[in-house]
Amino acid sequence: MEFKKILVTGGAGFIGSHFIRHVLNMRPATQVTNLDALTYAGNLENLRDVQSNPRYKFVKGDITDTKSAAQTAEGFDAIVNFAAESHVDRSILGPEAFIQANIVGTHRLLEVARKLKIKRFLQVSTDEVYGSLGDSGSFTENTPLAPNSPYSASKASADLLVRAYNHTFNLDTVITRCSNNYGPFQFPEKLIPLMIFNARSNKDLPVYGDGLNIRDWIHVEDHCAAVLEVLEKGKSGEVYNVGSDNEWSNIQIVKSILKELGKPESLIKFVKDRPGHDRRYSIDSSKIQSELKWAPKITFADGMKRTISWYLDNTKWLQNLQSGSYQKYYEQQYVNR
Ligand code: NAD
Ligand code: TYD
Questions:
Q1: Taking CB atoms and a 6 Å cutoff, what residues make up the pocket around ligand 2?
Q2: Active site annotation includes 265
Q3: Is 128 labeled as catalytic in the residue annotation?
Q4: What angle do CA 209, 212, 214 make, to 5 degrees?
């Protein structure tokens, strides 16, 4: 079913901002409200091109604040919850914020959805809830949850609450679990934008451990198309994995960025490993592909080329982000590592 009024939480972040743009483009009769607390990762610049669209509205607010979330959600058909603390390294430096935003926040939003009889609640989750794989195999929707970081544990907890609200209160819910995203507007704490920015300014490229950890990469626009499919066609109570069969080791990614930028591999610096670092992620997305007819469209070669040139063309977007607090995080995370 097509929803006419969608509340997107966390829409000022990386993926949520692409999702809002996708919905406004693909569903010309749909109104979208973006409820976002504007944490360090929230940036209204990500939505500059849609800010004057009459079908789009921004509300500054926190999903843990039940009263204001309920006021904002009144009259909406669907809630799509992207709002979260999203970076594993920050969850190691300070787990508390992850418990608040990802667990308490999701719970309070579920309560709002239940009380207001919202028709559908979509939880945007991650493949990281399944833990880490060895050399073979992929995560299916039936893989047991085995999160290893405070981030993934908080996301898994939220998924369990969503499941419980579906079973106990008959709230119509769906969950998506996607692999690592890349694309424009990603905060430069994450692997791909961080490496592009450092390489651009001839700074060291900090690769954790032996660089052989594997991630399964998907372009953010393919992820957003999948979220809309699940929102409209997914079966209540179900989980849908989202991925594009695209596994690379971190060192392969870093070397490909250096090659594209014409920079030397001597910029690579192996640094102390991340504690509890998951070795490999690999997502089996055959369920969404066969049941909902979704398929990724963007090849990694093309997506990466476009992503790198976007970052090179948008240095002002980056400069505006590199506030005092980002510098402080960078020093804490990388200097003397
Ligand atoms: P992000 O960090 O770029 O954006 C998160 C957004 O949520 C920010 O705009 C922030 O201001 C907002 N936010 C945080 N706490 C909030 C709160 N309490 N109330 C309201 N807003 C709040 O994250 P992202 O990479 O865009 O990820 C979005 C969602 O997708 C997250 O739930 C994440 O777990 C999930 N996910 C991310 C990836 C990935 O590769 N980035 C992959 C799979 C799933
Ligand atoms: P990241 O983008 O933080 O995503 P996630 O941990 O959620 O998968 O990291 C992707 C991979 O890159 C992960 O294996 C950790 C590694 N990594 C580095 O080697 N160096 C870095 O500076 C960062 C940020 C990540």
A1: 88, 180, 190-191, 194, 206-208, 213, 215, 250, 274
A2: no
A3: yes
A4: 120
CA distances from 334 to 6, 107, 208, 260 (A): 39, 34, 10, 24
Domain assignment of residue 84, yes or no: yes
Residue 334 falls inside a structural domain: no
Does 126 sit in the ligand 1 pocket, CB within 6 Å?
yes
Over its C-alpha atoms, the chain yields an Rg (Å, rounded) of 19
Provide the token pair at 121. Answer: 């609640």
- Average pLDDT (126-155) is 98
Question: How confident is the model over 50-103, as pLDDT tens digits?
Answer: 999 999 999 999 999 999 999 999 999 999 999 999 999 999 999 999 999 999
Residue having the nearest C-alpha atom to atom 34 of ligand 1: 86
Q: Is pTM beyond 0.90 here?
A: yes
Is 127 tagged catalytic? yes
For ligand 2, pick from 187, 215, 331, 337 the residue to mutate: most ligand atoms within 8 Å of CB.
215
Whichever domain contains 150, its CATH number is 3.40.50.720
Residue 119's domain comprises 5-182+219-242
